[in-house]
Amino acid sequence: MWIARLGAMIVDTVSRFGEFTLFTLATLGAVVTGVPAWAKWSRFGTQLYLVGTRSVPVVGLTGAMIGAILAVEGYDQFAAFGQESRLGAVVNISITKQIGPVLAAVMLAGRVGCSLAAELGSMRVTDQIDAMRVMAADPLRVLVAPRVVACVVMIPILTVASILCGIFGGWFVTTKLYGVNPEAYWDFTRVFIDWFDVMNGVVKSVFFGTAIGVISCYKGFRCRSGAQGVGRATTEAFVASFVVIVIINLVLAKLLNDIDAMRLGTRM
Fold first, then answer.
1. Residue 266's pLDDT is what?
2. Distances in Å between the alpha carbon of 123 and those of 196, 229, 268?
3. Residue 126 in 3-state DSSP?
4. In whole angstroms, how large is the CA radius of gyration of the chain?
5. ∠ at Cα 19 (132, 213), nearest 5°?
6. In the chain, what's the furthest Cα-to-Cα distance?
7. Predicted pLDDT of residue 194
8. CB 108 within 8 A of CB 158
9. How far is CA 133 from CA 137, 141, 225, in A?
């Protein structure tokens, strides 16, 4: 019995992965070939607002709090060795390369991803997507493409905002609360962080945004009937996005660190 269940699970997993791959390729095709349909400001502009502008407060506040927390937790350890002026470098490089992009992506997977899955899932349950097909309108071009492109465009911008807020939070706690010299704080930050570290976070956020947009739309499109189906699609969208974000971060961290090492080695 357990062998049959295992086989059924493997077949179902492979089937779902294939279905998701086909959906991703179809979405890419809709983005490339359906520009006149999805680029209308009434569609694309609305998604930019929903994904970007409405996410700024939560992303900014979360980034600032994380920067402040890192400064609070790290100060005592640095002060014990008389190196508190170097705290800014560690806090800021952590926020820029890792914590800022990942945290912003996770927050947006919860706020934006769940919203996309719930919205498209509701349209699926109420047969609105099928009605669009009957009227010869491509749902991928009209519904999915503007949402995915909005995620790809706005999530990197929101990531930069999160990083800046995190840096500000760390600076405020370190210099105002603990009295570290601001000039020394920024001097060490400039020494240890260069443009490639900033690009590191931005490049990751592009992949994160793509993953959040495609996964959330896929879960909404494949939503089962009923309110329970919409709720399940929303939950699955966040969980799947979170797992993929972590995997992408690991792969890109290794790849970008290797590229940075080669870059520095060539420069030296």
1. 60
2. 42, 12, 57
3. coil
4. 22
5. 65
6. 71
7. 83
8. yes
9. 5, 11, 18
DSSP annotation string for 193-246: --HHHHHHHHHHHHHHHHHHHHHHHHHHHTPPSSHHHHHHHHHHHHHHHHHHHH
**What element of type H or E holds 154?**
helix 145-171
pLDDT in tens, the chain (268 residues): 778 787 788 888 888 888 888 999 999 998 888 888 777 888 888 888 988 888 888 899 999 999 999 999 888 888 888 888 888 888 888 898 888 899 889 988 998 999 999 999 988 888 888 888 888 888 888 889 999 999 999 988 999 999 999 999 999 999 988 888 888 888 888 888 888 888 888 999 999 999 999 999 999 988 877 778 888 999 999 999 999 999 999 999 999 988 888 877 765 5
Cβ–Cβ < 8 Å for 95, 170: yes
Amino acid at 193: I
Question: Residue 135, SS3?
Answer: coil
Provide the CA 175 distance to its chain's centre, in angstroms.
Answer: 30
Residues across the chain: 268
Pair of tokens at residue 252: 């890109």
**Distance (Å, rounded) from C-alpha 113 to C-alpha 102?**
15
Residue 124, token pair as written in the block: 């699926």
Contact 133, 183 (CB under 8 A): no
Please count the other Cβ atoms lying within 10 Å of the Cβ belonging to residue 77. 12
Query: What is the rounded distance in angstroms from the CA atom of residue 140 to the CA atom of residue 174?
Result: 48
- For residues 241 and 215, the answer to whether their CB atoms sit within 8 Å is yes
How is residue 222 written in tokens? 């494949």
CB of 214 within 8 A of CB of 116?
Answer: no
